[in-house]
From TrEMBL:
Needed cofactors: FMN
Domain DUS-like FMN-binding: 30-247
Listed GO MF terms: flavin adenine dinucleotide binding; tRNA dihydrouridine synthase activity
UniProt catalytic activity: a 5,6-dihydrouridine in mRNA + NAD(+) = a uridine in mRNA + NADH + H(+); a 5,6-dihydrouridine in mRNA + NADP(+) = a uridine in mRNA + NADPH + H(+)
Protein species of origin: Staphylotrichum tortipilum
One GO-annotated biological process of the protein: mRNA processing
Name recorded for this polypeptide: tRNA-dihydrouridine synthase
Listed CDD domains: DUS_like_FMN
Keywords: Flavoprotein, FMN, mRNA processing, Oxidoreductase, tRNA processing
Role: Catalyzes the synthesis of dihydrouridine, a modified base found in the D-loop of most tRNAs. Specifically modifies U47 in cytoplasmic tRNAs. Catalyzes the synthesis of dihydrouridine in some mRNAs, thereby affecting their translation.
Pfam families: Dus
Length: 394
């Protein structure tokens, strides 16, 4: 992959700093297998997401296989860049460091997956299995920082926030049943020096490896870990982020109101009843409603238009496009007993949908993009909506 000199990337820590100054949480999109591709990342970025993740990429295959590099990681060379973190699955320091070196010219930072609970990943000592190998995780992030430094990238944490070559190294984790092990893990990965650290920021999914997603996140664990480490390292919450007005912890400020006139406008300040929490990461709910962080109660038709436009420029397999649209045209996920656990006390999520279940099934039968656009236009005319419109590419 040849370096593209005209690409500009913002340092993730600068985004944390901007959000803090705006008295809100940082809004991020989770790494989702198959779904966190370029077109989707561009769509959520248009609707208020500050920082996006790629799907987890296996570092070993990425290093050795040109076809894996071509298929697993795609960027845009035109228009504003959605700040992107490339997430890797790895268990060898040199593999993570080499893969990070390959993608550093094309992203804002790299992330090590220590949270994937799938059995195949854990059998390969990847994902959540690494929660039992804290020294190995430390060695991987240290080796990666050293490799990036040797390559000429800025890995000086806050000192490189404004450096055009500044890059971040981060880790996404789950928690242990015994939280003392999680504290030991984070302490080891951060390093012994209280004035510096081995990672730029940390994402915590407050469920154990065996906890199903239908079970609410462990708020006690989140409070303990953010209060213990949140003053030393920025922390993102992953899990049960279904809507800004229905977060899984008590809130004191109102959520933003969605408007179609300015999708990039940031929200009014959100609460910090967890004062050392720095940001939010959403997965399934953002897949259903890409405008979640813009304050939309459910997916608007304009987000469908944006996704179709982005998918036309950064093509995806038709089946994947259909799956995205089936998610977006269905009811939002949320804490009403049918969409998963979590949510603030008494909070509910709008369950209206752009298409009925029968209409979504009919949409899945479309055999090409032309039929798909025609189908959506017909449904919108029946609903009194305007037909498909290409969004402003700027």
């Amino acid at each position: 992959m040849a370096e593209l000199p005209n690409l500009e990337f913002v340092h993730p820590l600068k985004l944390f700093d901007i959000a803090k100054k705006e008295k809100r949480l940082l809004y991020t999109s989770a790494p989702m297998v198959r779904y966190s591709k370029l077109a989707f990342r561009q769509t959520v970025f248009e609707y208020g997401t500050d920082l996006c993740w790629t799907p987890m990429i296996l570092a070993k295959e990425f290093n050795r296989n040109r076809f894996a590099r071509d298929s697993d990681f795609t960027i845009s060379t035109a228009g504003p860049q959605a700040p992107t973190i490339v997430q890797f699955g790895a268990n060898v320091p040199q593999e993570l460091a080499r893969a990070s070196s390959l993608v550093a010219p094309f992203c804002s930072g790299v992330d090590l997956n220590c949270g994937c609970p799938q059995s195949w990943a854990c059998a390969e000592t990847l994902g959540a299995a690494l929660m039992e190998r804290r020294e190995l995780v430390r060695d991987m992030v240290v080796e990666t920082r050293e490799q990036l430094r040797r390559d000429g990238w800025g890995v000086g944490l806050e000192a490189d926030i404004d450096n055009p070559k500044g890059r971040s190294v981060s880790v996404k984790i789950r928690v242990h049943k015994d939280l003392r092990k999680t504290i030991d893990f984070i302490t080891t990965v951060l390093g012994p020096d209280a004035n510096t650290r081995n990672i730029d920021f940390l994402t915590i999914h407050p469920r154990t490896r065996s906890t199903p997603s239908s079970t609410p996140i462990n708020l006690d664990a989140l409070e303990l870990l953010t209060s213990t480490f949140g003053t030393r390292v920025p922390i993102l919450l992953s899990g049960d982020v279904f809507a800004l007005h229905a977060l899984p912890f008590p809130t004191t400020h109102s959520a933003p109101t969605f408007t179609t006139t300015n999708t990039k406008e940031k929200s009014t300040p959100l609460p910090l009843t967890l004062p050392h929490l720095s940001g939010l990461m959403s997965a399934r709910a953002l897949l259903r409603n890409p405008a979640l962080y813009a304050g939309a109660s459910s997916c608007p038709w304009s987000a469908v238009d944006t996704f179709l436009s982005r998918a036309a420029r950064a093509p995806l397999p038709l089946k994947l496009v259909l799956h995205h649209l089936s998610e977006m045209c269905g009811p939002a996920l949320g804490p009403d007993g049918s969409g998963g656990g979590g949510g603030g006390e008494g909070a509910t999520v709008d369950k209206s949908a752009l298409l009925s279940k029968k209409e979504r099934a009919a949409m899945m039968a479309c055999g090409n993009m032309i039929d798909l656009v025609d189908f959506l236009d017909e449904r919108r005319r029946e609903a009194g909506e305007h037909g498909w419109q290409q969004p402003d590419p700027g």
